[in-house]
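Re: your question about DegT/DnrJ/EryC1/StrS family aminotransferase

S., sorry for the slow reply, the queue was backed up all week. Below is exactly what I fed in.
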Amino acid sequence: MSIPLLDLNRQYDTIKEEIRDVIDEVLESQYFIMGDNVEQFEGEAGTYCETKHAYGCASGSDALLLALMAMDINPGDYVITSPFTFFATAGAISRLNAIPVFLDIEKDSYNLDPKQVELFLKKEHPVYKKLDPDPERIKAVIPVHLYGQMADMDPIMEIANEHGLKVIEDAAQAIGATYKGQKAGSMGDFGCFSFFPSKNLGAYGDAGLITVKDPILAEKTDILRLHGAKPKYHHSIVGINSRLDSIQAAILSVKLRYLDEWSEKRKEIAHTYNELFRKAGIVGDLNQCKDGCSENCGLETNSIITPTETTGASDRSGRHIYHQYTIRTKKRDALARVLNAENIGHSVYYPVPLHEQECFSYLGYKASDCPNAHCASRQVISLPIYPELKEAEIQKVADTVISVHTS
Ligand SMILES: Cc1ncc(COP(=O)(O)O)c(C=O)c1O
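Result:
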């Protein structure tokens, strides 16, 4: 039995006819860029994400870039974000010659730690002393909702408001996730979504969406993706070419109707994994894992840590959409070897945190500046999770993980 990390064919098989019909309609119309299909999807996605303004664009990376451009991020400005994310989050900041400020994550949720942001903005964080920024030039914070779970948004919003910073939610992995009943992308000034094919809502190519709270910034975002033109061929600002294709929009409209069902199925699978691991007695206590741990991590060698769904403050509840099911273990290399031998897909998101990437070495970070991100990058491993995964496959994945942690 071979179990891929993700098998998009299985999903396609269930919606093939609907998808082919809408693609045919676009082909018959010969209208490929923007247009009615895009407007329709923007309306549906805006309603789904509980935001007033939603604009399709070419990718999640562009959504981040457009948000930063809309708020006039200039060379030399500082933007705070998580070091434990896909590169695009920080890449967008650097593309504008602004400076990413990496602050550590919470070790349970893997998301940006609001306490670190607060310390930084109060000028009490060691990273503040290292970067010595002009406080006037600290402009924004980008919390990332990693693996499908939202960051602790209330304190992040509160600190950002207090210091006059804009908040851009990197919701690329979290469409449909909630935090205290509020949808991802509806809380910050901007929300950035990716429809990369492997996402919970995946297009058949690159695609993205940006949600915007303020109507004036919304209008600016709308034209920034069209080279800043309004009306056509009249440019008051310089934008980029980042449009959504009609074919992708039509596909996304079909798939959006299934999204909640798919995400609930993912959650069921996550809970099944959790239960199988718990029954096998291999689930450890994250409190054993000391801040800053790595080789000296207190986590027992034969224990794993399963994903935490509601973390941090006790009143922090939300919906995890399980874009990834990620465990942590000190036996990651051994586990990967056995998973490979059993033909079970797996991946490490992410093996090198951004504060340790060569391209950011000019910032002068040490690994220990973000100890939780450093430690997570050495211990996390993601297992197959998709709605079509069969019971026997879930059991096989779990048995394999259990066997490595009981021998
Ligand atoms: C957290 C995060 N941010 C941004 C992106 C960029 O999205 P895209 O690949 O659509 O450009 C991704 C997608 O992989 C992501 O996971």
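Residues 59-61, 85-86, 88-89, 144, 170, 172-173, 194, 196, 206, 208 surround pyridoxal-5'-phosphate (CB under 6 Å). The chain has 13 helices and 13 strands.

Happy to talk it through on Thursday.
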